Amino acid sequence: MRGVIQTAALATVLTWGGASWAATAEEGVARAKAQVEAHRGSPKFVAPGPAFDIKACAAGKKMLSIPNNSTNPFLKGIIDRMIRAKDDTGLEVVEWQNQGQPSQWVQGMEFAAKNKFTAINLISGIDPKTIEPQIKAANAAGIKTMVSHFYDPSQPVNPLVSSSVAIGFNAVGKLLADWTIAKTSGKANIVIIKSDEVPPTAPLVKGITDELAANCPDCKIVQQINVGVTEWGTKIQPSVQAALLANPTVNYVIPIYDSMSQFVVPAVALTGKAATVKIATFNGTPFVIDYVQQGKVEMDIGESIDWIARATVDAHLRDMCGLAVPKELNVPFYIFDASNAKEAGTPATFDKGYGQDYVEGFRKIWKTAP
Q1: pTM of the model
Q2: Which residues, in sequence order, are CB contacts of 175 under 8 Å at separation 6+?
Q3: Is the pLDDT of residue 53 over 50?
Q4: SS3 for 366?
């Protein structure tokens, strides 16, 4: 959406007079800095539920995991690690490889039914409403369909799915906003790159706008650029270049999913604004953390895909075995910036930088610890 979106808080605080407005702005910056600092500590494991014998639960079961697109390295990495975790979990996991076409998702659902899978995992991007007839057929065949890393906790879950473990997309948006507030001392002028077709986009962007309204009366969202997932490679770069040239006060670009950064980085460079326009993003994809090490991206909010994989298998097996299912993945967000990006490796990898606390934590609650 073009044009300037002024935060609602600005109109409110201006009625209070200059002195009160300044105090409010300072308090907002302080709150933002506190939130940023809270995500710098070493990630800690929190048990998602009571301990259970995971291998006894998993005996004879198999799960088909269907990503929204197998070319997405983030999703591919999660599924690979669910497969590798079999030694700890006992669950056989198979990936349904696809190129992001709904017809291919339908084929995957049919494959699961024909091959008598116990459960189907729709991971991060497939909206259950697009394949409802197939979910109904799976349900009729006694196959549970479960969703992971897709819904924000604030969003209603499709009633046809057996369970969902959500991710705090709204919380991510708030943290992205807090970063820009803290780094600009409350003077952020932001361009957001988003994909409205992806349902978690709405709560994530709302997190940004709500946090700016609460903590930053002088911050502005200058422009929101909506680009469909299949058009990232052709539309993001020229759209960002046009936005930066049209709005010289912009000091932050937020591509809400970090794989967008590969098209934002050259746009910033080609407009000659690398010194004044910074990039903050989310997902922790290794090539983007490499960008952080190179100074091309200022910050990336990461989440361990191995941690996500284990949390997903944990939740889905609890569902398959009739146990209480956690509502969220409970995978902590961790900020990578110039101060710590090398913790992820050089070049960065998906599995470095988050410590090993979670590995032993899961083994303990799964009763597989040596």
Answers
A1: 0.87
A2: 35, 36, 39, 207, 301, 333, 335
A3: yes
A4: coil
